[in-house]
Amino acid sequence: MNFEPFKIVPVGYVRKEPETHIKILPEFREATEGLREGDWVKLVLWFHESDTPEKRRTLKVHPYGNPKNPLTGVFATRSPCRPNPVALYTVRIHRIEGSRLYIDEIDAEDGTPVVDIKIFVERYDCPKEVPIEEREAEIGAGRTIGEVNIIPRKADHLDELEEVSPEEYDALILEIGPKTTTLTAKELVELIEALQEVYENLPVEIKDKLRGMFQ
Question: Which of 4, 46, 61, 114 is most deeply buried (CB count within 10 A of its CB)?
């Protein structure tokens, strides 16, 4: 098998001392802005110790390395032996100290290259049937407020909705950290009313400062 190679560069490395953490390289430190302690993230690692011609030619393995298990295609396993030795982990960031992200314990070796870090999003990473399909979401109109993402539903085909009640019409996707839910049009109005009530009950001094910020 001959393939055209392409380049992947490490953005950091797994370190095991004194605790498991990701050491981000200085040139990529700015890319961690926005990550918070408590966030769940997806790590993409390069299993460098499996980056050998022999292991990369391996297309079937015994799952868990147990010969009692039938030979299975590597794409149906988590084996480190595969055409491209990429590894995926879902971990929680416990604390951030400079260029170090302290995470859950993982079985990767000390010095394993990290090729990417992505925030965990339940809608993408734990797919399930949801009332609003991806193609119906107005992704470009999404708003991020703190740890909350608000993604409205496209307003297409309104002529087909004459018989749909506000209680039935799913109006937006609401992501809070890694969790995803949807709100109906009726629930959206109730949320707006609740937020308005919270705003009205803010101290006068805070509301005055907010007015100055948003004028």
Answer: 114
Indicate yes or no: pTM above 0.90: no
16-50: b or e for each residue (b if 16 or more CB lie within 10 Å)?
eeeebbbebeeeeeeebeeeeeebbbbbbbbbeeb
Please write the tens of the pLDDT for every residue from 80-130: 999 999 999 999 999 999 999 999 999 899 999 999 999 998 878 877 666
Nearest to 13 by CA among 127, 138, 108: 108
Dist CA 4 CA 152 (whole Å): 41
What backbone phi and psi angles, to 5 degrees, belong to 83? -55, -40
Q: Half-sphere exposure of residue 33, counting CA atoms within 13 Å on the CB side? A: 6
Question: At CA 60, angle to CA 54 and CA 63, rounded to 5?
Answer: 115
Cα Rg, the chain, nearest whole Å: 23
